[in-house]
Amino acid sequence: VSLDQKNISAFFKLGALYDEQKKWSEARQTYQYALKLARQYEDDEAIMEELTIQEIYFSLAWVERESDDLDAALENIREALEIEPNSPRFLDLILDLSIIKKDKDLAIESLEKLATVNPENNKLSDWKEKIESL
Question: What stretches of the chain adopt beta strand conformation (E)?
Answer without folding.
Answer: none
